[in-house]
């Protein structure tokens, strides 16, 4: 397994690469790290759609400095994990249950045998929604979860979920689930450059992620397929039911960017109000990728993380 080692994005010391095989035979790329000396537990890091472990090397170093072990994985269909379709640029799943299978396999094959407890989840966007789904249905042993910008609903940059679901469902029934939707090329955010991007206000981190994509283009994927969009809409529909948030029994901190247009801060606020063990922090001025934001905004995130995750004060 290869990783994107760049001068501006060095691999944190001590990485152990670990392949994972899911019950349906999909090979996933994962890795873990242990800090020097005693540990406070393990943070399991779950990227968002179209991301990879490599984009989070800075975050891994920050967690190691807090004396946490770190375990991270690439979801199926993206990063260094196996693709579902012949075109490797198409990240695709038929149902979000497939992502839950990835998470469970990673937990059983990497986290439990190789990483010290207690276990905490740190997940972004699509990864955050998968963690919420898994937390209410499986035997995962996360003590707490910290979720950034969870995909509870589409934000202001997309049409309404109802319209998207109807269109994606109709096209999927016509056998076009593996295809890209019309106008998909417009969704390649990082290809357009920094100005006006909805992901981050930090040019250096934005350019670093573009450098990773240039150095290892096989880690990247294009826009979501019609089938992926339909699966995401169904997952969001389920999350919108009153019983879903109430069924999440793991203490959860959700961190939202005040200027996020990718996901809906209002939908997230409604979701948190229905949670029994959930709380929310809004970071004014932050866009979608809070962990890739400017240093003052990231500082607010880490202050919230340190106050919420036991033993993480530095």
Structure description:
With 314 residues, this protein is an alpha/beta fold. It has a single domain, classed as Alpha/Beta hydrolase fold, catalytic domain (Rossmann fold), CATH 3.40.50. Helices cover 33% and strands 15% of the residues. Strands 1-2-4-3-5-6-7-8 form an eight-stranded mixed β-sheet, with helices on both faces. Helix 4 crosses helix 6. The two termini are 33 Å apart.
Descriptors for this entry?
8 strands; 8-stranded mixed beta sheet
Task: Give the secondary structure arrangement, pairings included.
Elements: E1 16-21, E2 27-33, E3 42-46, H1 57-65, E4 69-73, H2 97-114, E5 119-124, H3 126-135, E6 142-148, H4 161-173, H5 203-215, H6 226-239, H7 243-246, E7 252-257, H8 265-273, E8 278-283, H9 295-308
Parallel strand pairs: 3-4, 3-5, 5-6, 6-7, 7-8
Antiparallel strand pairs: 1-2, 2-4
Helix pairs in contact: 2-3, 4-6
């Amino acid at each position: 397994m290869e990783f994107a080692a760049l001068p501006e994005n060095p691999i944190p010391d001590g990485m152990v690469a670990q392949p994972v095989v899911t019950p349906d035979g999909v090979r996933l790329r994962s890795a873990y790290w242990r800090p020097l000396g005693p540990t406070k537990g393990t943070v399991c890091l779950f990227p968002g759609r179209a991301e990879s472990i490599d984009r989070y090397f800075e975050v891994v170093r920050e967690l190691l400095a807090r004396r946490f072990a770190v375990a991270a994985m690439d979801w199926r269909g993206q990063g260094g994990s196996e693709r579902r379709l012949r075109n490797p640029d198409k990240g695709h799943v038929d149902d979000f249950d497939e992502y839950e299978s990835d998470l469970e396999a990673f937990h059983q094959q990497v986290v439990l045998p190789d990483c010290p407890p207690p276990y905490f989840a740190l997940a972004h966007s699509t990864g955050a929604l998968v963690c919420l789904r898994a937390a209410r249905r499986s035997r995962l042993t996360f003590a707490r979860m910290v979720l950034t910008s969870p995909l509870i609903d589409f934000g202001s940059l997309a049409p309404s979920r109802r319209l998207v679901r109807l269109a994606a469902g109709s096209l999927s029934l016509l056998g076009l689930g593996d295809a890209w939707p019309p106008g998909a090329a417009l969704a390649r955010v990082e290809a357009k450059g920094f100005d006006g991007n909805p992901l981050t206000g930090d040019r250096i981190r934005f350019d670093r992620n573009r450098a990773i994509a240039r150095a290892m283009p096989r880690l990247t994927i294009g826009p979501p397929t019609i089938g992926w969009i339909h699966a995401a809409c169904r997952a969001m529909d389920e999350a919108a039911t009153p019983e879903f948030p109430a069924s999440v029994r793991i203490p959860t901190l959700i961190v939202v960017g005040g200027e996020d247009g990718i996901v809906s801060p209002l939908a997230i606020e409604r979701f948190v109000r229905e949670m029994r063990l959930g709380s929310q922090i809004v970071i004014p001025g932050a866009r979608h990728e809070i962990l890739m934001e400017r240093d003052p905004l990231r500082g607010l995130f880490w202050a919230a993380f340190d106050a919420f995750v036991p033993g993480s004060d530095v």
